[in-house]
Amino acid sequence: MLVPADGRQVFRDAVDAMAAIVGEELVRTDPGLRVEIADGPQAGPAPMSAAATGRVLDLLVALPQGLTTMSPEMQGLVETSTNVGGVETDEAAVTVVTLTRSATDSKMAAVKQQIRTIARLVGGGVEEPEGYPGWRPDPDSPLLKTAVAAYRRLHGEEPKIRAVHAGLECALFGKKLPGVDMISMGPTMHRVHPPDEALYHPSVAAPMYELLKAVLEAVQ
Fold first, then answer.
1. What is the DSSP string of 5-30?
2. What b-and-e string marks burial along 139-155, b requiring 16 or more CB atoms within 10 Å of the CB?
3. What does the pLDDT look like over 86-97, one tens digit per residue?
């Protein structure tokens, strides 16, 4: 970020004041928040004009962020959300990357239309690579009922049926095979996606493999 030489202290004071506000907001979830300011190279690319800077800030403030709708099928499950994932600047453009997820294609399309509209109002455009389609939870799925019965026979207790707010390969299968009955099941995993992701290996052989065999035998 470029700051005029005579405005460095004003900038530092403004950052410190905002850091104190944000630190108070996050004191329970992110204690010890610290913001540091370091001097960079004196020379750099030409700064954006005040008008262009204003449009970028308008875009970032106006873009939808966070939870949009909750699932009507499963209590407590987020159905649709969107977030800004990153902002990149070069000499030609400012690129804002967003990620939208939804179990319902129509809800996802509505949020994407909102993003396109906001981008157009500030003079920007939108590129949309293909992403995951929606896959809505189906509590009445016959295959789900078969899996529940198989789990009950194997373990003598009721399984916990859950849905997650994330992209899943089943959504891609469902797009290619409309109406197909699907469930997703797997071994116990922890901290999925970060570098310290871990698989609880005892859950692979007995619980997972035996359940998969029982379900396959029941649907033959």
1. GGGHHHHHHHHHHHHHHHHHHTTTTS
2. eeeeebebbbebbeeee
3. 999 888 899 999
> Nearest CA to 60 among 31, 89, 102, 34?
89
Give residue 168's region: left, alpha or beta (phi > 0; psi -120 to 50).
beta
Identify the CA nearest to 68 among candidates 78, 76, 60, 77: 78
Distance of alpha carbon 22 from alpha carbon 33, whole angstroms: 8
- Distance between CA 102 and CA 163 in Å, rounded? 12
Q: What is the pLDDT of residue 44?
A: 65
Q: Three-state SS for 198?
A: strand
Each residue of 98-153: pLDDT tens digit?
Answer: 999 998 889 999 999 999 999 999 999 999 887 778 888 888 999 999 999 999 99
Residue 31 backbone dihedrals phi, psi, to 5 degrees: -65, 150
3 pLDDT band, cuts 50/70/90, is: confident
**Average pLDDT of the segment spanning 26-53:** 84
Of 75, 90, 1, the residue nearest 39 (C-alpha): 1
Per the structure block, which two tokens stand in for 24? 């108070």
Candidates 137, 220, 127, 135; CA nearest to 174 is 135
Tokens of 60: 């970032």
According to DSSP H, which parts of the chain are helical?
A: 8-25, 50-62, 105-121, 142-155, 169-176, 202-203, 210-219
